[in-house]
Fold this protein.
Amino acid sequence: MLSIRLAWRNLWRNKRRTLITLLALAVNTAVLITTFALMDGYIENAVRYATDLLTGEAQIHANEYLEDHSLYKTIDNPDEIIAKAKSHGINASPRVYGFGLLSVGNKSAGVMFEGVNPELDKQAFTLHEHLQGDGRFVSNKADKGMVLGKKLAKTLNVKIGSEIIAVVQAADGSLGTDIYTVSGILKTAGEKLDRSTAICHIDDFRELFVMENAVHEIALNSFRGVELEEIKPLLGTTIDGLEFKTWRQLNPSLSQMVDMSHVGMGIFATIFFIVAGLGVMNTMLMATYDRIREFGILKAIGTSPMAIIRDILVEAMMMSVIAICIGFVLGLATSYYLSIHGIDMSGVGGDVTFAGIAFDPIWKAVIHPASFIEPMAMMCVISVLASIYPAVIAARLKPVEAMNHV
Amino acid sequence: MDKIININNVIKDYGQGDVIVHALRGITLSLECGEFTSMAGPSGSGKSTLLNIIGGLDKPTTGSVEVDGRDVVSMSMAQLSHLRRNRIGFIFQNYSLIPVLTAYENAEYILVLQGVSAKKRNERIMDILKEVGLDGMENRFPRELSGGQQQRVAIARAIAPEPALVLADEPTANVDSKTGGALMDLMRKLNEEKGITFLLSTHEKIVMERARRLFVLKDGLIEFDGSPKEGINIA
């Protein structure tokens, strides 16, 4: 207890110096906590958009389908796979794809037609909520409705209710053609979706492309209820001979960005910790030099070097704990505010996309215990480590020289 | 009686190269347990150097120094800390109290390092503060005490661990003669009642008069060693 009283009183001998150091440490901690929370939010937002909107946590295709997107490389047992996935709490959405042309009047564009099962797709993905204005997603019943990407709609100069003509080469070699009605236009959802995707009911697609029961892709999404690495083993033999890819494999740019974000945060945090450590070391060095005579006296009356080191470390620890508590409150308050209101990035550069994936333009923080515990614990450890050097200087003082120090 | 201090041909030189100061030129001296001895001499005669060497705060250039039966010259820093903590009390000229600790806490500090229980510490410190005349002042910080009172706290701190030897470096130098006399009477009383050996360095008559033995240092050598009555004029 005497050590703690001594440390506490020593801490306030130079109030201004202590307050400046406390403030610097507290702000450092708060900034780190907020940055961690924002980065967690950024990464979660990225992963959520990458997986929940359309891609899913994983996808299954026929072997080599992704290389040429051939109409004929289909999955033979989609119902079995969907049922197996469902039994493990994984939502599954079957899809079919084909290339063709959409035209309205004298305007036309090459598009990737995507046929979906709306009922299953709505369970697995959030694309149906990602529509502009009063548009609606593809109806559960095939009704020749079509949802277009934002830029595609602009290119074709269509709006909801407009009629469009689809022209494709069907699987049997014939010319497939039909008239569709624009039921919805997507909000920004990534370059590929925006520019060249037209979504329709899977049955309408099959009719247009003359492909009865065909499925090119099964997209899986558990909304993070199942660990990414566990999905494949859970599907067992149902996917034998098929290609299984996680979102990290399907979108390596985004995967790399997520990994790089962690590395970037590590570098950022390291710089902060070094700055904080130097601040603490500077304060403790000044405090040590101010009290050289006292350390001489303490050593003369029999205080061991270890006891002197302990006293200085207790002082540093006390300072860092106070600063961290203040930083915690500031960081929590800021992170909480940003988790509710976020930072509106739309004003910075319009739609926010990366690696072909659109992000929510409102960048929100996510509050995880790790966002607080890691920076707080590290700040505490750094403060103590930074005090070792001044403490050792004090412990190695020669009593006679120290007592004569002016 | 057992010898508490036994010094044999101690030489202490400072500096290096051509500029060497011979602070002690061959001191041989012994003190027995329970002595109350003063050490006089002009400034630069080597009094503080000798006290520092006896207290293990400095090492002699050559010679042997035994304190409480232990060779302090060959001791490590940690062993010396242990010896000072448990067997030697220090009183310094300028009080040398820790300013952020109260009178009670200054005296208590070493007992905490010794691992004495809180209850025993409290009993011992309250008794000692009463003994040195600081009853009721235990919660005062050094800045709230007079010079004489601060030196009493320093005496309390020195005797709290129940040392065998107290080394006092000009303990009355910064107080008036009346206070100095009272402090000397206090140390003498502690010497008689507790049997603690005192070795005091001084310039002052009031200290020399109250000692039972006086030795005088001059230019790093003992010029006189005997009764204060005989030596006081030499000093």
User: Anything to note?
Assistant: Chain A has two domains: 2-51+254-403, 64-240. Chain A has a mean pLDDT of 90.
